# Entry
Amino acid sequence: MVYDNAIEAGNKLIANVGLVSMYGKKRNFKLTRLTQPVFKGEMTFHLEPNLDIVKGDVLAIAPTSYFFEASDEVIVESYDATTGKTTTLKGLTTYHWGAPVSPTYKYGVDTRAEVTLLSRNIRIVGEDIESWGAQIVTSDTIEWDLTVRQGQLFMDNVEVYNASQANTEKAAIRFEGNTGLYSAVTNCAIHNGAAWGVHIKESANILFKDNIVFRMKPFSFVVSTSRNITLDGNVAISTVPREKDYDKTTMAVDLEAAFAICSVKNGDRCSDISIVNNIAAGATYAGFVVPAHDCGDTNQKLFRDNIAHSVWGKPRLGLGAFIFPDPAKNHDSTCYEGSKFTAYKCAEQGAFMFFKGI
Amino acid sequence: MPVADEDVHIEPGWNMVYDLEDSPVFKMIRINGRLSFKNDSSTALHLRAKHIYVRAGELIIGTKDLPFENKA
# Structure
């Protein structure tokens, strides 16, 4: 599906207050690792064997240095399923670390370069003429005769390319005022857009699971004033700064991030949010900006088992996670906690906790 | 057959199956019925539009049990 150039506001849009359901061909891997280091300029590297990779597939290789943009996007020329040897059409732009065996036994985390698949057989392709980037917007509405419409979106193994509107909050995939029905976006690749990847605003009952978000600006995922939202197993690679600065005076927490949860606007209130098993691989300023959980709550699912690396927001900071008091809770307590989080190669703190006197 | 820059309306109760290799660039596709992509097509299906409004209807490409096999 391809949008063409348009100048009217509101165009380049799938506006959904009904049902959009797209199920693409299943691929057998979401994430693999480099099994050997690879250097700048090389056109051959090694992945795990027996993966569903074919000629023409596009792969994203995450950064393994501090620098958040040190990722690569390559087109596969060949893949040997026996050895994992992969050749590409052009040389890599930077070094990536890999090894045959995960160093988890040594570091507690697999630090080999993440390699993800960006290609899907269903593609939603935007274009950016006139600066109107494509969006998929799901919402609820009440029509003039009081008929209630409730949008529902199911996307599985769909690729969203070159969507979102530059220097705005108009993300490639948006939920806005969508609280009625359950929606799920799974196993999708959202990449190379002009602005935000995903924005869930004033919405409820939404799952994002096992998606790849690559080179979006300056947020891959944003959740604002929503409830019953789950982000599980998503990988955000090289979340890059936007070109134009924005009004930070309205932001609750003044941070760009791969995952910005209830932090983008003053007054954000979220409940029943679950941010689990996600990876922020390359981000400017912070991998995650998330509310803290109650002290001692070892069963919490608000924020657990997430990983951030390669965060260096020069000239800004470089935080794995910025954890702040949950604005949805009362602030009688002075005890806030973040836990079960892993960070490495962050220019500043791996985890930073800030008591904001609210 | 609608042409480029026209509005296309899928009316309530209609069940349209899209099977074109390519389409003109429609100004708007308003879906109040059902628009699905033919799943046993031997060629890639390209639908081009400036605006798709799924109002009281459904836009369907593949299903959970039968994912779309070709390219769209």
Remarks:
- Chain B touches chain A through 29 residues (CB under 8 Å).
- Strands of chain B lie at 7-10, 15-18, 25-26, 28-31, 34-37, 48-49, 51-54, 58-61.
- The radius of gyration of chain B is 12 Å.
- The mean pLDDT of chain B is 94.
